Amino acid sequence: MTSESDANLVARARRGEQSAFEALVRRHLRAAVAVGLSVLREVAEAEDVAQESLVAAWQALDDCRDPDRFAGWLLTIVRNRARNRLAAGKVRAAHADTVLEPEAADDLERVGERQRLLAALETLSQVQREVVLLHDLEAWTHAEIAASLGLTEVNCRQHLFVARRALRTVLGQDGANDA
Amino acid sequence: MRDDDDDRLDLSALAPSSAAYERLVQRTLHRARATPPPMVRWSTRLLAASVLVMLVAGVLAWLPHREGDGDREGLTTDTLSQWALSGQVPQNVDLGSFGVAP
Fold first, then answer.
1. Do B4 and A118 touch (CB under 8 A)?
2. Domain map of chain B by residue range?
3. Which residue of A has its CA nearest to B12?
4. What is the pLDDT of residue B40?
5. Which of B9, B17, B27 to mutate to test the interface with A (most CBs of A within 10 A)?
6. Which one-letter DSSP state was computed for residue A135?
7. Residue B96: strand, helix, or coil
8. What structural domains and CATH numbers belong to chain A?
């Protein structure tokens, strides 16, 4: 496992080192998908916009003014591109090359749970979805999420609290962890 | 330090499996490879800038020569040799073009 900083990886990627870009992809693709999911609410679309955004980031690395905050910069690209897709009505367009592998690798129980969670996420606002996905799925801290979204940490905690409560109500958990 | 861990929701069903994640990574890298890396773009810009500088330098080097063509026409090696041997300024040489008063 590498502990090389994002700033170093960005510097090397700027020099054209594919291995550095690969490390950035491996480190941040999951969060990019989570943010895409918070906007688009569709896994295949989220994966596609995350990939597209990483390639766009690769092309525009010179524009990343603070390489230490590459993640925040990347997620802004993801958010904007996802919103553009929504605005352009491109969501749920044909995606023959989607990476989503439901029946093949996932068991039916997992697919069902995924659908249940996606439906529950629909009840939240976009910001609430992003906060809860980054915190509870990607294990980001409130400080990291707040910096990425331009919120205060207090605000971030409030969004998480409200999101969890709403999700638990919809999922019928009411405080119990059913998974 | 992670906060609010005790109350964490289990959203793991939304995460891709490790195999699916690896495929996602590879697909992203494949898409990136299909586009020129930053270094190539930077090199292209540098090459374009170099060509531009060379063109400008060429034009600048050519312009004074053109201006002097009329005055120094005929100032060949033979003329210079004759000038050096005789000590006489050849008729087709205008010393004024050298900034020297005749």
1. no
2. 16-65
3. A137
4. 61
5. B9
6. I
7. helix
8. 1-100 (1.10.1740.10), 103-179 (1.10.10.10)
